[in-house]
From TrEMBL:
Domain NAD(P)-binding positions: 5-322
Pfam family, one: GDP_Man_Dehyd
Top-level EC class as recorded in UniProt: isomerase
Subunit description: Homodimer.
UniProt keywords, alphabetically: Carbohydrate metabolism, Isomerase, NAD
UniProt similarity note: Belongs to the NAD(P)-dependent epimerase/dehydratase family.
Name recorded for this polypeptide: UDP-glucose 4-epimerase
UniProt GO MF annotations: UDP-glucose 4-epimerase activity
Gene: galE
Length: 339
């Protein structure tokens, strides 16, 4: 049995990945400090799987606790989802972001080295490409200085991982650059549950649909795109979760630094998303145009062919699957997870 420590495993992407790890025959252990997750998610995961998944409450910055976890469990690899991820918040509290994300990854990697665990998968982001010079983005597209502390923590951790892999070349280091994760598990039992008013498009759409918010503001309709709104590569969270399984299958115990874009390769505009979402709910979702949001890139979508060729992974879920599953989750849980 291959055991994978899933830090941040109670969060949005982590919880979906835990399900797919079990489905693929891996044994996950969730390690989460519940800063941005509710304990209810654990019950939901167990209901979906029909069995219990082990969970340890802890912080990735807690070296002593990690020492105990690695001593008491035979851990073959780590997937690190633990981190803070709100762009605006990171501008207001940069030190917390560098501490939680960069220092957290450093402490975690130190514990792994100490316990001779040399398989690491990191949740990176398309944010490392900044405002792209051209699209689609390949893994060789240049990294840019990020436009916010959150984004910069991703760039910094990527460099730290690569440098560690040079120093310890028996390490298998996997950097997965996610595009825009949306959607939810088919069961409607787990999904995205942001604190406060959502910053991201899809949870905003779902909360308007269930009446928690009045209408969507579309940030900017004068961009140089087909309809004036920004273009993103939205990817279903279950496809993303399966990307981690594929990365484990191909990269476990394979020394090197393996970098993959996880996206669909298709860009949709904000208006495309509103249209697709309106189709899922059966009426036109209330929306209006508003000024541009500072820091938004115009157009960002992946060339996912490296992951296809090397990992045999492709995203198969459609835009209709993404909107339907997002809405289904929110409809079943209008107030998210309630503890
Ligand atoms: P999330 O907030 O739902 O999940 C993160 C989890 O980590 C939460 O359960 C939180 O409680 C936990 N956590 C935070 N700090 C911790 C710490 N110090 N120790 C232990 N646990 C801690 O976020 P998500 O959307 O699932 O994102 C997971 C990862 O993917 C993050 O690193 C995020 O930056 C990255 N990512 C997310 C997106 C996105 O749009 N959702 C895009 C690109 C990359
Ligand atoms: N948008 C709106 N109205 C909203 C929310 C979003 O019009 O209420 C638009 C944005 O302007 C953007 C698109 O919808 O054009 C997507 O916005 P998201 O916030 O959902 O996604 P981003 O691509 O802007 O953000 C992503 C990740 C972040 C990451 C960021 C880096 O979700 O984690 O890329 O640029 F930091």
């Amino acid at each position: 049995m291959t055991t994978i420590l899933v830090t941040g495993g109670a969060g949005y992407i982590g919880s979906h990945t835990v399900i797919e790890l079990v489905n693929a025959g891996y044994e996950p252990i969730i390690y989460d400090n519940f800063y941005n997750a509710k304990k209810t998610v654990l019950k939901r995961i167990n209901t979906i799987l029909g069995r219990e998944v082990k969970c340890i409450e802890g912080d990735i910055r807690d070296a002593q606790k990690l020492d105990l976890v690695f001593s008491q469990n035979k851990i073959d690899g780590v997937i690190n989802f633990a981190g803070l991820k709100a762009v605006g918040e990171s501008v207001k509290m940069p030190l917390e972001y560098y501490d939680n994300n960069v220092n957290g990854a450093r402490v975690l990697l130190s514990a792994m080295l100490k316990h001779n665990c040399k398989n690491f998968i990191f949740s990176s982001s398309a944010t490392v490409y900044g405002e792209p010079d051209s699209v689609p983005l390949t893994e060789n597209s240049p990294l840019k200085r990020a436009n916010c502390p959150y984004g910069q923590t991703k760039v910094d951790i990527e460099y730290m991982c690569q440098e560690l892999q040079v120093a310890h070349n028996d390490f298998s280091m996997v950097l997965l650059r996610y595009f825009n994760p949306v959607g939810a598990h088919k069961s409607g039992l787990i999904g995205e549950d942001p604190k406060g008013v959502p910053n991201n498009l899809m949870p905003y759409l779902t909360q308007v649909a269930v009446g928690r918010l009045k209408e969507l503001s579309i940030f900017g309709n004068d961009y140089p795109t087909k309809d004036g709104t920004c273009i993103r590569d939205y990817i279903h969270v279950v496809d993303l979760a399966l990307g981690h399984v594929a990365a484990l299958k191909h990269c476990l115990n394979k020394p090197g630094c393996h970098i993959y874009n996880l996206g669909t390769g298709t860009g949709y505009s904000v208006l495309d998303m509103v249209k697709a979402f309106s189709k899922a709910i059966g009426y036109e979702l209330p929306h209006k145009f508003a000024p541009r949001r500072a820091g938004d890139v115009v157009e960002c979508y992946a060339d996912p062919s490296k992951a296809k060729n090397e990992l045999g992974w492709v995203a198969t879920r459609t835009l209709d699957d993404m909107t339907f599953d997002s809405y289904n989750w929110q409809k079943n849980n209008p107030n998210g997870y309630e503890d």
